[in-house]
Amino acid sequence: MNRLANKVAVITGSTSGIGRATAELFAKEGAQVVVNGRRRELGEQVVEGIRAAGGTASFFYGDVTKSDQIEAMIRFAVDTYGRLDILVNNAWSGRSAAVLDLSEEEWDYLFAVLLKASFLGAKYAIPEMIKGGGGSIINISSVHGLLSSHNYCAYDSAKAGVINLSRSIAVDYGHQGIRCNAICPGWIITEQTEKWVKEHPEHLRSAEMLYPVGRPGYTIDIAQAALFLASDESSFITGHALVVDGGLTIQLQDGVASMVERTVRQRLSGE
Ligand SMILES: NC(=O)c1ccc[n+]([C@@H]2O[C@H](COP(=O)([O-])OP(=O)(O)OC[C@H]3O[C@@H](n4cnc5c(N)ncnc54)[C@H](OP(=O)(O)O)[C@@H]3O)[C@@H](O)[C@H]2O)c1
User: Fold this and answer.
1) 2 in a domain, yes or no?
2) Ligand 1, pocket-test mutation among 73, 92, 156, most atoms within 8 A of CB
3) CB of 190 sitting under 6 A from ligand 1
4) pLDDT mean over 92-115
5) Contact at 8 Å (CB) between 174 and 128?
6) Half-sphere exposure of 102 toward its Cβ, with a 13 Å CA cutoff?
7) Distance between CA 208 and CA 204 in Å, rounded?
8) Whose CA is nearest to atom 15 of ligand 1?
9) Ligand 1 binding pocket includes 64 (Cβ within 6 Å)
10) Is residue 243 over pLDDT 80?
11) Whose CA is nearest to atom 25 of ligand 1?
12) Cβ neighbours of residue 183 under 8 Å, at least 6 residues apart?
């Protein structure tokens, strides 16, 4: 408890999913939290839940593809709580597709929400963090930032950009007390995907097979990693891309292929 006592945190896209779990955990650990998103009702529900549990939080309605709204969100945090120590750039929405199936507008939108928003968040947050003696920026990337997958051209590209943006910020502002790290989650089941997973249990079965820890991730797995990077316990860690994927990306493809082959063979022969 209280690993983030006296700290103020802004978490973009925290009306649901990883952002929501992170907001709830940070508040539980003593941070004053700004919850953000465009679904006002859900955001207010997250805030109510945090307050009911004894924490401190406020909702800021804002679209992270709009520079003025990001600036206003950072201003809101400082005006409401007096300082800014932590920024988690987490928001995302959009459609993934291969080059020939993605419009230029969709590419631009994905880059705005996934990469430019992290640049703008840092741009407005860093001066406030420096005033307070330093801070921690955490950019949510993905295993897609390290490797590529079918039909994810813009997502893969933007998430790779997020990792190097994090390194650039770490290098440029480290001497002023700013740390910046990325987190690369594997597949994380959220309230948005829970229903779909129940309807398609085969995806859960294949994740149990593909992930060396025998399961996909849950939002709390990423929130816990973000908590470590936000807290002073990680004060010597910056510019790092922390892979939180249950071991998905440590495996050689030929090993995975033979494991899948073996399992299919066993199933077909009824073993
Ligand atoms: N879940 C996974 O398997 C997984 C794996 C690797 C990486 N990630 C990354 O983890 C992050 C969170 O993903 P998630 O699965 O938790 O997503 P999610 O449940 O769909 O939540 C996305 C959040 O972003 C907000 N958002 C979307 N567009 C926004 C905008 N323009 N302005 C402000 N907020 C916006 C949404 O709120 P509103 O709708 O209220 O605006 C929502 O709170 C993303 O960066 C994603 O790429 C997820």
Assistant:
1) no
2) 92
3) yes
4) 97
5) no
6) 19
7) 6
8) 17
9) yes
10) yes
11) 13
12) 138, 139, 140, 141, 222, 225, 226, 229, 241, 242, 244
How far, in Å, from the CA of 65 to the mean position of ligand 1? 13
The catalytically annotated residue of 81, 124, 152, 155 is: 155
Residue 189: give the domain boundaries: 8-201+216-251
Number of domains, the chain: 1
Q: Report pLDDT digits (tens) over 36-73.
A: 999 999 999 999 999 999 999 999 999 999 999 999 99
Q: What is the pTM of this model?
A: 0.97
Confidence band of 237 (pLDDT split at 50, 70, 90): very high
Residue 108 lies in a domain: yes
Residue 236 included in any domain: yes
Regarding the beta carbon of 248 and ligand 1, being less than 6 Å apart is answered no
pLDDT tens figures, 114-167: 999 999 999 999 999 999 999 999 999 999 999 999 999 999 999 999 999 999
Q: Which atom of ligand 1 is nearest to the CA of 192?
A: 19
pLDDT at 261: 87
CB within 8 Å of 7: residues ≥ 6 apart: 30, 31, 32, 85, 86, 230
- Domain with residue 16: its CATH number is 3.40.50.720
Residue 259 belongs to a domain = no
Q: 44 in ligand 1 pocket by Cβ < 6 Å?
A: no
Q: Based on the residue annotation, tell me whether 155 is a catalytic residue of this protein.
A: yes
